[in-house]
Each structure stands twice: as C-alpha cells, then as structure tokens.
Specification:
Blueprint lengths: L2 H47 L3 E10 L2 E10 L8 H4 L13 E8 L5 E5 L5 E2 L4 H12 L6 E3 L20 E3 H10 L3 H9 L4 H15 L18 E2 L1 H11 L3 H8 L2 E6 L2 E6 L12 E9 L3 E10 L2 E10 L4 H14 L9 E3 L2
Parallel strand pairs: 4-14
Antiparallel strand pairs: 1-2, 3-4, 3-13, 5-8, 6-7, 9-10, 11-12, 12-13
Helix pairs in contact: 3-6, 3-7, 4-5, 4-8
Length: about 350
C-alpha cells in the first residue's frame, strides 16, 4: 500500500471515530432527558395527590401571657363519590331541592306514598342496619339483663372507627341495644350479633330472613353494625323496616332518647344521640336511626308526627353533616302545607 493511501486511511479513521462518539453522545443525553422528565412528572403527580400544607399564624394565651404560634394546616381531601353518585342519582332533581339522592315519605296509617325520589334503588345503608339488628334481638327473646362482654372480635378492622367501649367492657344486653340505637355504637351492635344463638353467621342469616318476611326484596345484610358497604336496601324497604320496628316500645324509647347514662363494667357512662332532632321540642319523633359511611353518605330513617299525621321518612346518600335532618325539615314544611287526607304526592327517580 502506498504511503499516500495509508495516510488517507488513517485520516478517514480519525474523522469517523469522533463522529461515532458524537452520535453516541447525542443519543445518551436524549435518553437521560426522557428519564428525567418522566421522573419529574411522577414527582409532580405525587405532590398533587398530597394534601396541601400551609402555616397558619395563631395567637394564644398561656399562663396569662400572649404567645404567637404557627400550626400546620392541610386542605380537606376531595370528597369521595358515594355509591349513589356513581349510579348517577345526583342528577335527579326535586321541587324541594333535597340534598339527599334518595328520599321516601310514607303515611304510616294508610300506607299512602307522599314523596319519593329514587326510592327503589338499593344503596349502602350504613348504621341504619342497626335497626334490623334491634328487631332480630327483640324477636329472639333473649335475656335483656344478661351481661355481655366486648371482645377483640368486636373491634372494627374495616373502617377503623373509634369506640368508647374498650375490649373487656361489660354491659347488659339492654344497654348494648340502647347505645347501639341511640349512639350508633358499633362494638355494641357487633356484640349483640356475636351473642346470638349460633353466633354472628346465624344472626346475619336471621336478619336476611326477617327482611324477606317483611317483603324487603332489595335488602341484603352481611353484618350487624352496618360498617360494610355490602349492607344495602332501598328506601321503600327501609320504610317497611321502620313500620315493623315501631311495634316495639323499647326500640322507640332507645332510639329516640336524646341522652342516657348506662352502666359499663360497673361504672356510669353518658352517651348521646346521633340525631340532634331528638332533643328538639319542635319535633315529635317516635323512632329514628342515623347512618354514615363514605360509600353511603349521610342516612336517616325516622318516624314523626306532623300536623297530626304519622309519617315514615327515609333519606339516603345525603351530602353534608346536617343535610339529612335539614331534608327532614324541608319535608316537614311541605307536609305542613298539605292537609291530612290530601292526595298530593311527588314521585321522581330512575
């Protein structure tokens, strides 16, 4: 090979090698940028999901001296859609502008339907479940003075709800029933089911059997406290349950007591009602039960006398802590404008 040809070949190699390296260098930064961008997007998405934090300046007084403190505050988490929302029930409007996705009002004496809104849709009913628990307990004719003990089996490991009844707490069956209805005590309701002949499975079976007996065809129970979203019923069904439960004076008393002191492990303990209307002199309430879990929204079943008419009211999937009782007030004003025996009624729904 001539010296000229060899020199040309060396020159070509010297030009080619840097060119290849430049191409590789151009590719590597590109991949690096893509990975960096993906990582940045992931971090931004995670930050968006985190609750927003801010420092709030507050002035407090300690030992008579003024002190400025700063507290970390977090923005409220976005509302979780209920089963009713997911079913599209929030699109149903009514002339009373009720905040409940479901409503049903029945004349207790003649079974006339006065108002209904999505009343045949089966939805989670939360602690309204406890009213069926109470009916089954009453029909079992068990000793109401028997002392029952709260055990680890009664601890809520589904919703992790709090309870004032510690494991080992001892109450009579009557007191368990009282605070289950009045204060919606979950561990009390659980203990009632667990102490049924055959245990909890037999109790749930008895609940479903009673529902079938009452013609509650849209109803199904899986526990005695209502913590599971699988406890479902329609508002029409719950009106039938309210009529049945009203036959028991003990259930009327226990569910409508504004407050009570019961003996827990030999010591007095005060409990209050979850329904503030029970302490209102403007209402005559004969039976009631509230309920709430995220999937169900705010729920209320109530018997009341309005303008001399005994009515059953059921509200499911209401938004806002006071909205269910506010809806009861809206229905009350509407009924007060009607006269007993009047044929006016409202019906809407899917």
């Amino acid at each position: 090979m001539s010296k000229f040809a060899l020199a040309a070949l060396v020159s070509l190699l010297m030009v080619s090698v840097p060119a290849l390296a430049e191409d590789a260098g151009a590719t590597a930064p590109k991949k690096h940028l893509v990975k960096k961008k993906a990582k940045r997007q992931a971090v931004q998405a995670a930050a968006a999901a985190e609750p927003k934090e801010k420092l709030v300046r507050r002035v407090v007084f300690q030992h008579g001296r003024r002190k400025v403190v700063y507290q970390r505050m977090y923005a409220a988490a976005p509302a979780v859609p209920t089963m009713g929302d997911l079913a599209g029930l929030s699109q149903t409007h009514d002339p009373l502008d009720l905040k409940s996705n479901v409503a049903f009002v029945l004349d207790q004496d003649n079974s006339q339907v006065l108002f209904e809104k999505n009343a045949e849709v089966a939805l989670p009913i939360a602690s309204i479940t406890k009213m069926m628990t109470a009916v089954v307990v009453m029909e079992a004719n068990q000793d109401m003075e028997e002392v029952l003990t709260v055990t680890d089996e009664d601890v809520d490991r589904e919703k992790f709800s709090s309870s004032r009844l510690r494991v080992g707490a001892r109450l009579t069956r009557a007191n368990m029933l009282h605070i289950a209805l009045m204060s919606s005590e979950n561990r009390a309701a659980s203990a009632l089911g667990r102490n049924y002949p055959g245990g909890r499975p037999a109790f749930v079976e008895a609940m479903n059997a009673k529902a079938r007996e009452l013609g509650m065809l849209d109803t199904h129970y899986v526990d005695s406290n209502g913590l599971s979203k699988m406890n479902v019923a329609s508002a029409r069904d719950l009106a039938k349950l309210a009529v049945a439960a009203y036959q028991y004076p003990m259930l009327r008393q226990f569910s409508t007591d504004p407050k009570a002191v019961v003996e827990v492990s030999g010591h007095p303990m005060a409990f209050g009602s979850t329904n503030h209307l029970t302490s209102s002199p403007d209402w005559t309430i004969g039976l009631q039960k509230t309920g709430f879990i995220n999937e169900a929204g705010r729920c209320l079943m109530m018997q009341a006398v309005i303008e001399g008419r005994s009515v059953i009211m059921v509200f499911l999937d209401s938004k806002g802590k006071l909205s269910r009782t506010a809806d009861a007030g809206r229905i009350r004003k509407w009924l007060e404008a009607l006269k007993p025996g009047a044929g006016s009624a409202y019906s809407a729904g899917m």
